[in-house]
Write a structure and sequence with these properties.
It is a single chain. The protein is built from seven helices and eleven strands. With 301 residues, the protein is α/β, with parallel strands linked by helices. It has three domains: 124 residues, Leucine-rich repeat, LRR (right-handed beta-alpha superhelix); 41 residues; 111 residues, 3-Layer(aba) Sandwich (Rossmann fold). α6 packs parallel to α7. The mean pLDDT is 85.
Length: 301
């Protein structure tokens, strides 16, 4: 058998049941409802030169299905099929532009399910090199990834303290926090309370409000340090701050908006915070003298 006509038989697919037709040259399956082929349908039809598929329900085509006949097929009509033009059938477009002739090419259209720029356009207008080039796609993806990474890195660097602060709060919310109290009493320290952690502008508030309150509520706390005036004479400023913080039962921080913008205050704040981190004890008390927006607060306040 060299020619087989199966038109208008309500076929829904073609399978390997066509095996054994080794001399078949032309297969006509127009006017059916064929929506797919079995991968091995043409395996035993090695000499096929003509295949007509007009008026079916074909949407896509697998390259491996036609491997046995890519070198023998000479003509094929695909008109009146809802072909979905995507990069998956790019091989078919290249094929019909090369060895095989597409019959009724001007009536073979891409369906509405195709890529946006190909919907209802002739199949012959599909340019796989333009839209499906792996190198172009890869380069574009690499460029977008690089730009995105740089922008993300810049944003994260510009907001690193805020991000770390939010991550710290998230960690507290998820894992919780166990306060560790020092079993030692205030008498076992060189100083009871030190209030050197304030800015000069807040020094007067400390003397007018905080100092009288401590003297009233904590009458047993006599070895207190109030402001820079009580630092150790003859010792370098930061050394003196570090010395007193390590030997105080409690360190009191007075926070104001002007204080958190002062570099010297932040240095003292870090000193006290480092001691808390090293000792793992809550020996630091923070007093807010006014409402301060989160973005203005030092990290971990």
């Amino acid at each position: 058998m060299k020619e087989l006509h199966l038109e208008t038989n309500y076929l829904t697919h073609l399978s390997s049941d066509l095996r054994g037709l080794v001399n078949l040259l032309a297969l006509h399956v127009d006017n059916n409802h064929i929506s797919y082929f079995s991968n091995d349908v043409f395996r035993e039809i090695p000499r096929l030169t003509t295949l007509t598929l007009t008026n079916n329900d074909l949407t896509t085509f697998n390259s491996s299905t036609f491997d046995p006949n890519k070198s023998t097929l000479e003509a094929i009509p695909l008109d009146n099929n809802p072909i979905v033009c995507t990069c998956e059938i790019g091989w078919l477009v290249e094929w019909i532009r090369g060895h095989i002739h597409l019959i009724n090419a001007d009536q073979s259209y891409c369906s509405s399910a195709s890529l946006d720029h190909l919907k209802r356009k002739p199949l012959s207008t599909f340019q796989p090199d333009e839209f499906c080039s792996p190198s172009t796609t890869l380069i574009s993806l690499l460029i977008l990834t690089g730009v995105g990474a740089n922008v993300t890195a810049f944003i994260m660097y510009s907001n690193q303290w805020v991000l770390k602060y939010k991550l710290f709060l998230l960690k507290l919310a998820i894992l919780g926090y166990d306060e560790m109290e020092d079993a030692r009493g205030h008498n076992e320290f060189s100083y009871d309370i030190n209030c050197i952690m304030c800015k000069d502008d807040d020094d007067q508030w400390m003397k007018d409000h905080l100092k009288p309150l401590i003297e009233e509520k904590l009458p047993n706390f006599h070895r207190n340090v109030y402001g820079d005036e009580d630092l150790i004479i003859g010792m370098h400023y930061l050394d003196s701050v570090h010395y007193i913080v390590e030997r105080s039962y409690k360190t009191v921080m007075l926070l104001s908006r002007s204080a958190v913008r002062n570099n010297w205050f932040l240095v003292k704040f870090r000193t006290a915070l480092d001691h808390v981190n090293e000792s793992h004890l809550e020996n630091m008390v923070v007093v807010f003298l006014e409402d301060i927006p989160d973005v203005e607060l030092p990290f971990l306040v």
